[in-house]
Design a protein that fits this description.
Radius of gyration: 16 Å
Number of strands: 0
Strand content: under 5%
Number of domains: 1
Distance between the termini: 54 Å
Length: 67
């Protein structure tokens, strides 16, 4: 039973990762993997700072609607 639960959780994580890619949402775990590979020796952003950085990049400093 424990192995089945682990497999289900892994499947859900993969599905969530794919869903995030489809809708353009940030993926913190993927960021951590990239950071470890490409920026070893530096401290990665925390989860909250990572998402704040994404929101700032995505929506910019100004209003997000026309009216």
């Amino acid at each position: 039973m424990d192995a089945k639960l682990t497999a289900v959780r892994a499947g859900l994580r993969r599905a969530l990762r794919i869903l995030r890619q489809v809708v353009g949402a940030p993926d913190y775990e993927r960021y951590l993997e990239h950071h470890a590979r490409c920026h070893a020796g530096t401290v990665p952003l925390g989860r909250r700072a990572f998402y704040a950085d994404f929101v700032s990049w995505r929506f910019g400093p100004g209003p997000t609607r026309c009216c």
